[in-house]
Amino acid sequence: MKHFTNILYVLDQEAEQPCGLERAVALARGNQARLKVVSVIESLPAGTPLEGLDLTTDDLQAASLAESQQRLSALVEPLRGRVAIETKVLTGKLFVEVIREVLRHDHDLVMKCVGDKPPMAALFGSEDLHLLRKCPCPLWLGRPQDDLNYRRVLAAVDVEPLASNKEQAQQQALNATILDLAATLATSEFAELHVAHVWAALGEPILRGGMIVTPAETKITAYIEAERRSHSQALEQALADLESRLGAEALRWLKPIRHLRKGSPREELPALAKRIEADILVLGTLGRTGISGLLIGNTAEAVLQRIDCAVLAVKPAGFICPVVA
């Protein structure tokens, strides 16, 4: 079972209420993890005199820092009896400073809230998108309207049987992380665990489009059914691997509900999340590992734009963060 050990909660300075902080405290307590709560303030130019005032921008920066520290301390004080909490005010650009904090102190989960609108539709071009693309550890993005207790956890895995050996190894490692995190969440929340894989038969539109000599319909049908079985078996193997890590008893208790959906992930995953009323979607941001800033791919972005639930986004092994500590 995957456990977090060092959680970083990012406070939204503009939010009236600390969305998700209660969940961060509960998660830290349940995992016996360290919890750090940070806020990020704007960095002002150093040493600039303020015309007509006996002050400089350094004075404003110090006052802003003191005010933020005071607010942060007051916010977490009622929660300190439940878990030890460290507070810290960072100065600079939010996504850069949060990622630097992750790199310097080995945080294994970042938690942050998005706005009141459907979360992912409003992300792009924002600090949250930068975090999705560049944060080296799992990123949990919640919403103010989220229930404190999740009822349904949806894990999206990619089990493409036709991938190369190297790609399959990368997929399996990422799927293992996704499923371990989803299983941990479902266990701690006493929630249903749903596991989804969206598949398509390679070349089906061409076979049905008349652009080549079309085989008999029965052969096309048989081919598509064979593809479905292949993807189904790969999904079952991913769950068997999960069982080997968790143990048979734990998996029997979780009773993961399988969803093998035919079509496009960008359409099927949001539709499934809506249909089952998922509280959180756990998915990998699949893309080019090792290339700075290009990790989150077109499919992942399209899915995130369409869903209306919390997200736990996971990076594949080998990701190189473009931000330096």
Automatic annotation (TrEMBL):
GO cellular component entries: cytoplasm
Record has Manganese as a keyword: no
Key words, A-Z: Cytoplasm
Locations listed in the record: Cytoplasm
Positions in coiled-coil regions: none
InterPro entries tied to this protein: Universal_stress_UspA, UspA
Domain UspA: 4-141, 150-315
The family this protein is said to belong to: Belongs to the universal stress protein A family.
Function description: Required for resistance to DNA-damaging agents.
Protein name: UspA domain-containing protein
Organism from which the protein derives: Lamprobacter modestohalophilus
Classification of source organism: Bacteria, Pseudomonadati, Pseudomonadota, Gammaproteobacteria, Chromatiales
